[in-house]
Amino acid sequence: MKKPVSVFLAFALLILAGCGAKQTAAKPLDLEQFTAGVLDTVEYDDELIALTEKNVANYYKKLPESGISAYKIYVSATSGTTNELAVFSCENADAVSAVKTAVEARIKLQRENYENYIPAEVSRLDDALIRTSGNYLLFSVSPDNDTIDAAFKAALK
Amino acid sequence: MVFNRFTVCLHAFPFAFCAGLWYTIAVIVAARGKYCSEVFLLADANLQFARKKRRRSPLLAFLFLTAGLSFAIAGVWQLLSPKPAIEEPFSFDPAIVEKYHLSPESSEPQTSESEPASEPEADPQSEPANDSAAVGDLSSSDDGPDAAEINASALTAESSEIVPAQPPPAESGLVYLSDARPVPQSERVLSTYFDDAVFIGDSITTGISLYDVMSNTTVWASTGASLTNILTREIATVPGVGDLTVLSALDAVQPAKIYILLGANSLAANLDDVIAVYSSTLDQIIAHAPNAVIYVQSAFPINEALYSVKYNNIVTNAIIDDFNSRLLALCGQKGVNFLDVNSYFRDETGGLSAEDTSDGLHIHSALYLDWFDYLKTHSVS
């Protein structure tokens, strides 16, 4: 009878070990919850509005057609500021890289939009935050990128 | 850690395992006749199995008991533990959300009973009057209070003939510099009227697609677009073709109607120059879309207090009124339609209410439906 008991003890230890490993690995990010938390926490100086699927291509012209499993993008509702918050969940590292390229193109487009329109907004684009972690990418233009960066890191711990 | 039935079972397992192990050992010991505990309800039964040399019976009991205890502990834990807090999703002002979710199509039934199935016949008075005055004469001082009074009385007379869906909140700031007049109120058209229309403009016009106000129409607009770059930037996305300049896109699409809203980003410059550039822009648009019905919209009013803080320049509503008056005369000269949208949005002070804007220039999303309400009731055939 010692052998079966040993087998079950080992099985139980394996389960507990697996449980411990789960706690240290990166958590899946709930994009909806994360962006809602950011919008509640950060004091934006403009109203932000979520981009619909139909509009995304007008704003992010170089997004890859595949490799993005989910995204949540908020832009300035009035175009009075360059404020923006975008989080992408990608399927692999290649998709993350492609999304990063699209985000950089978006920043370039915004520079063209604002340099002769509201030049003060261009400095915000200089401080734009692009952060990747695993298969997630965060892009933020806001008055408080430090808080958003910290929230992103905390959400994935 | 996310608490769900699986994770709770996982954590309950060690406790159940220990309990089951304790029970099994007790049964084994009892089977050897050294000790028999009556604490365990199933001990006697297992004892009988064990005495009949069915050595696997304690093991089976251990398995079932462990699984059963796991689920029992998990269930009790789940019932007793407080539910995790769920963050409230981001939400806009309920008043804005209410209007935002009322798509133009969904609002149609309210008016469909009084609307014809097809587009209404053109109002003979809605044809733009040709203006013989040259652009260079626009700044002449022929106008004055009399012209303003005529303007106001004309609008009042028109308004009394056709009951407006929503009357303008204040008098128009236009001064008539020629025979040209704004498009008067007309029968309300359906949203399908905008199926073959394109909207050309700046950041204000981008809101049409951003807020999905009229999803069946086409928007060629960009933040920062102005009279100086509207024809050179590739802001017109044509399906299957790509991003084109406005003129190239006009060549490709040949829309039936063109709505233009420009000038807001150029009004700090000399108005004579602004009107001259507008004139050239109109000429090119007309040349590339000769069959289109063209509507030029007046520049929106601003909230001067908010605007001066955000944009730090000298534009005032008086300048905007002057620009719009000259633009009306220009439209008469070019034979295109002028829509006095400005009069629809201005408050009793002649400006944009602080409640309608956050930066003094851009209107809130809720007002886009009002804007289209105006366009639907001011059309020509």
How many helical stretches of chain B? 13
> Which series of helices and strands of chain A comes N to C?
HHEHEEHHEEH
The assigned structural class of chain B equals alpha/beta
**How many strands of chain A?**
5
Report the principal-axis shape of chain A: globular
**C-alpha termini separation of chain B:** 64 Å
> In which range does the helix fraction of chain B lie?
40-55%
Helix percent band of chain A: 40-55%
Average pLDDT metric of chain B: 74
Count of beta strands of chain B = 7
Q: Which two chains touch over the largest interface?
A: A-B, 40 and 47 residues
Low-pLDDT ranges of chain B? 83-169
Query: Number of folding domains of chain A?
Result: 1
- Main sheet attributes: strand count, strand direction, barrel closure of chain B: 5 strands, parallel
**CA-based shape of chain B:** elongated
CATH architecture of the largest domain in chain B: 3-Layer(aba) Sandwich
Compose a concise summary of this entry.
Chain A is α+β, with helices and mostly antiparallel strands.
Account of the protein in words:
- The complex is a heterodimer of chains A (157) and B (381).
- With 157 residues, chain A is an alpha+beta fold.
- Chain A has one domain.
- Helix content of chain A is 51%, strand content 19%.
- The longest helix of chain A is centred in the first third of the chain and has 23 residues.
- About 6% of the residues of chain A have low confidence.
- Chain B is α/β, with parallel strands linked by helices and 381 residues long.
- Chain B folds into 2 domains: 76 residues, no CATH class; 248 residues, SGNH hydrolase (Rossmann fold).
- Chain B has 13 helices and 7 strands.
- Classes of the chains: A alpha+beta (157), B alpha/beta (381).
- At the A-B interface, helix 1, helix 2, helix 3 and helix 4 of A face helix 1, helix 3 and helix 7 of B.
